[in-house]
Amino acid sequence: MNNLFEKLKKSIFAKQISYLLIFISFAYIFYLLSINWKKLIYTLPLDKMLASIFLGSIFYGLNTILLAYTWYRLLKVLGEKVDYKTSHYIFGYSQIAKYIPGNVMHYLGRFVLSRNSGMSEKNILTSIFLETLLLAFSALSITFVTVFFFEWNTIFNIIFRKLIIIFFIILFITAIIFLLIFIFKKYRSITKLGYFFKTIYQKYVFRELFYSYLKYFSFFVLNGIFLCFLSKIMWMINLKSNILIFIGAYAASWIIGFVTPGSPGGIGVREALLILILQMYISESQAVTLALVFRIITTLGDILFFFSSSYLNVKYLKIKS
User: Fold this and answer.
1) 83 φ, ψ (degrees, to nearest 5)
2) Which segments cross the bilayer (predicted)?
3) What pTM was estimated for this model as a whole?
4) What is the pLDDT of residues 39-75, one digit of tens each?
5) Residue 88 in contact with residue 309, Cβ under 8 Å?
6) Long-range contacts for 29-35 (Cβ within 8 Å, ≥24 apart)?
7) Least confident of 39-48, 56-65, 132-141, 148-157
8) Under DSSP, is residue 155 helix (H, G, I), strand (E, B) or coil?
9) What is the tens place of the pLDDT at every residue in 208-221?
């Protein structure tokens, strides 16, 4: 009983910390908006912004197909006999739920829809676990490489960089530990563990996992490039030499938003970190505008992907009798 009470207290404390982080992020964004609103009004190229939002939403929606296809491949390698249309429908239909507070409802929705379509609960959970792990690995690896290209001009920024590196190292180690726990819980003896590695080697699972990692890696790179391209369209800024910064900024902001409990779709947290990093290269008002416009683009892209998935005539609700 005491252990349960302690766990409950820790859970409540973690939620309070995450809500505080979300509040600080929104407060920071609103503060920047309040001191930059005149610049935003007079310098914002409205026609270019609207065109960028329209084209960007389509681009992001198409880029999300990469995530849906990768999940489909993970299901196939786990032995699920599922066609791509069904997995695409389930992924797209449930993905929109990530904007519900809690940051886990899209996974729950995907689990329910997949189970109703006749998939194995074990394979569904494993595929979601692998997807989460590989997404985190790809974002972390990009952040590790690009963080050293950031311009850290002050003592505060140098300390901030070290804190970021330490934070991502902790995340990386935690992910490895969770993976090992998952494997050893499933295969408790050395014999079973050896059989497990032999089996996945024979089934080319390692190769498929590596390909999945590359696809997730490409997802972050493409979105980072588009973020850089967006600044070029809106303000004609020459940022060819800083394209790695935009890729790294997007990857870092994504992982921070992803691990913040209670932040629906990482809203607020991702924008705050994007602004912090990008204002070292562009003006503060431009960084604020870019972060907010990119949030609109990604949200509309998710909505487009949701509707495109809804139009697929797939009978996924065949429950096994």
Assistant:
1) -85, 160
2) 12-33, 53-72, 124-150, 162-184, 216-237, 243-260, 288-312
3) 0.74
4) 555 556 677 778 888 899 899 999 999 999 999 999 9
5) yes
6) 29/268, 29/271, 29/272, 29/275, 29/288, 29/291, 29/292, 32/275, 32/284, 32/288, 33/288
7) 148-157
8) helix
9) 888 899 999 999 99
